[in-house]
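Subject: mismatched residue count in predicted assembly?

I count 262 residues in my input, but I want to confirm that the predicted structure covers every chain. Input:
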Amino acid sequence: MSSPGGISVSARGLTRRFDGFVAVDRVSFDVRKGEVFGLLGPNGAGKSTILRMLCGLLAPTEGEATVAGLDVRTAPESVKQHIGYMSQRFSLYEDLTVEENVDFFAGIYRIPGGRKRERKEWAVRMAGLEGHRRTRTAHLSGGWKQRLALGCAILHEPPVLFLDEPTSGTDPFSRRAFWDLIYALSGAGTTVFVTTHHMDEAEHCDRLGLVYRGELAALGSPSALKAGMARKETTGPSLEDVFVSIVEERDRMAGPVAEVRR
Ligand SMILES: Nc1ncnc2c1ncn2[C@@H]1O[C@H](COP(=O)(O)OP(=O)(O)O)[C@@H](O)[C@H]1O
Ligand SMILES: [Mg+2]
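Triage response: the counts match. Full output below for your records.
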C-alpha cells in the first residue's frame, strides 16, 4: 500500500510492567494514516495492554507513543477525544434500546446539536438497524451488537479507531460484513488498529505485528511475512506457519526486530 501521507500511530520502546511482571516489552512501530494495522498474538501476549496504552487508558511504564500527533503520556485525555475505541466486550448498555445507546455515546463525545441527528442516523443505518431503533440491545444478535458498537465508537468521526478483538463471538458472515465496514473506513482515511488471535482475520490487515510474550516478534504485511518464511522453508506457508516459526525462533533467541519488506 502506498503511504497516504503521515504517521498516525507511533510507538517507541513502549513498555508496561505490572508489579514487576513485564506485560509489554519495548515495543516499537509506526502506523500510517488510513492503514489497517493488526496485532496478532495468543491470549496473554500483551495485545490489549498495548492498545490500552495507545488509547490513553493505561500509562506506559517506559517508552513513548503518539496517536494522531498527541503524546499518550502527557495528553491522555486529548488522545481519548481523538480516537474511537471498541473494547473486547462491546461496551454497549444491554438494557438500553439501540437508539438510547447511540444517544448515550453521542453525549459522551459531546457531538454538537446540528451534527448529532445526522451522525446518529448514520450509525443506525450503518449497523443495519433502521427497523430496530426501539429494540433492547440485549435482544440483538452478536453481529448486530458488534456493528452497533462500531457505530457508537465512531460517532465523533475519529481519525484513529482502535478495535480490541472486535469479532470474537460472532459468526463468519457477520465477520465478513464487519470487515467490509473496516475497509470502507480505512478507504475514507481512518486509521484502523485492530487486535486479533484469528489468523484469517490477520490476513485482512495491510500490516501486522506479531506479539509474543509482550514483545513484537515480527512486523510486516501478511504477504511479506509469508514470503520471508518461504525463502527459508517450503513454499506457500500460512500465517499460522509463520507465527509458529517466529515463536520457535523467538524462544531460542531474543533481540530487536527489523520490519520484513518485499
Ligand atoms: N491490570 C493488570 N494487572 C496485572 N496483570 C495484567 C493486567 N492487565 C494485563 N495483565 C497481564 O498482562 C499480560 C498481557 O495481557 P493482555 O494485554 O490482556 O493480553 P492479550 O490482550 O494479548 O490477551 C497477561 O499476562 C495479563 O495477565
Ligand atoms: Mg486482549
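The pocket of magnesium ion (ligand 2) is lined by residues 47-48, 88, 164-165 (CB under 6 Å). Marking this ticket as 'not a bug'.
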